[in-house]
Amino acid sequence: MFSKILIANRGEIAVRIIRACKDMGIKTVAVYSEADRSSFHLQLADEAVCIGPAASDASYLNIPSIISAAEITDVEAIHPGYGFLAEDAHFAEICESCQIKFIGPRPRTIRLMGDKIKAKETAKKAGLPVMPGSSAVIKNKEEALKVAHQIGYPVIIKAVAGGGGRGMRISHNDVTLIGSLLTAQREAEAAFGNGEVYIEKYIEKLRHIEVQILGDEHGHIIHLGERDCTIQRRHQKLIEESPAYGISSKLRKKMGEAAVKAGKAVDYTSAGTIEFLVDNKERFYFMEMNTRIQVEHPVTEMVTGLDLVKLQISIAAGEKLKIKQDDVELKGSAIECRVNAEDPDKDFIPSPGKLLEFHMPSGPGVRVDTHAYTNYEVSPYYDSMIAKIITYGKDRAEAIRIMQRALDEVLIGPIKSTVSFSKRILANQLFLKGQHSTDFVEKMLEKKKEQVPTVK
């Protein structure tokens, strides 16, 4: 087992990883930007190294600075968390060349599954159902129109190197397709340094359901059940739960088996996620693979009783998985609400600033993952998420009731947060009945606009 690990990240995930390391008796090194000098993860780590100014590309994406920090502190491994360099194959390769263990999958796996077209081809070869669409990069408007006419509108344009909804556009006709193509290419280039896009059939009324997998370096791969991530805004997840409500045991079994097949097809190691889209007839389609720990991993931990970060570390240290597929059992229900420093009443504009008031819920069935505290300065430079609230109950109804109680206990000020919006979702009858799809939040927002009286 490692004696010291560097966490190449910030915020709540850095805190989460440090906690796992402490439980395992592993010393930790935190890295931070000049804007994060007061960040909570620095107080928890055994050592801390400044890696650059506030801008991400000069700090948390600065590979030479991070490797230098790892070398001067003499760590044996680096945990990338999620975001930043977590799915950067080049970074993983550099770690390997410096004899520093990258806590994640092999570089070739990251590179393969990071290319959405190649990932789709790999999944198809492994026997997974895939959404109809282009089999190569769309180079011009003529190719885009040809594919759209073949598969029929509506279609969705996606970035080859994409994630988080960036470089993604839906189109319903030839006219909007051309504009959407150019916009998606520009967004993809700005976000990922790669403007390549592809096209898929867009099916409305879909649910976004993902399956957590684990693979060790000895060829053993299992899945830990599924999470429902359907509640999202602009393709950014807001609320996640496990298990997915209202799906049949037959579908659950099929998706789990398909996820393991995908993992075996790329000889997967560490924690990873296979993401599916599911229609109202329980047909499911491979969407992508995330080769890292997910933001929403706590809901899986709550229903399985497993610590995914500790398992990641153990796998990276060369240990065999001690869990077999038959050992995995989902008990009860868990739900997670992300708390973002955003103003829901002003189109979710970021709301950075000092947290003069900050109180998170507690009590039976409640878990909070956060790096924030009273008088903490929420930075405008990074992701706006300041906390995750996770609740657990014997069934979905109880988990939701506990979440409603938990959200009522939250005190955040003077900055705005998404807590009030989460409350609205949890009170919505369609959500409570499990009758929601990926356009649920947009429709909620449209309905609210219709209800606002116009001023004459």
TrEMBL record:
PROSITE patterns: ATP_GRASP, BC, CPSASE_2. GO terms for molecular function: ATP binding; biotin carboxylase activity; metal ion binding. Keywords: ATP-binding, Biotin, Fatty acid biosynthesis, Fatty acid metabolism, Ligase, Lipid biosynthesis, Lipid metabolism, Magnesium, Metal-binding, Nucleotide-binding. Residues 120-317 form the ATP-grasp domain. Its EC number is 6.3.4.14. Coiled coil: none annotated. Residues 1-446 form the Biotin carboxylation domain. GO terms for biological process: fatty acid biosynthetic process; malonyl-CoA biosynthetic process. It catalyses: N(6)-biotinyl-L-lysyl-[protein] + hydrogencarbonate + ATP = N(6)-carboxybiotinyl-L-lysyl-[protein] + ADP + phosphate + H(+). Pathway: Lipid metabolism; malonyl-CoA biosynthesis; malonyl-CoA from acetyl-CoA: step 1/1. The keyword Signal does not apply. Acetyl-CoA carboxylase is a heterohexamer of biotin carboxyl carrier protein, biotin carboxylase and the two subunits of carboxyl transferase in a 2:2 complex. This protein is a component of the acetyl coenzyme A carboxylase complex; first, biotin carboxylase catalyzes the carboxylation of the carrier protein and then the transcarboxylase transfers the carboxyl group to form malonyl-CoA. PANTHER family: BIOTIN CARBOXYLASE, CHLOROPLASTIC, PYRUVATE CARBOXYLASE SUBUNIT A. This is Biotin carboxylase. It comes from Candidatus Aquitaenariimonas noxiae.
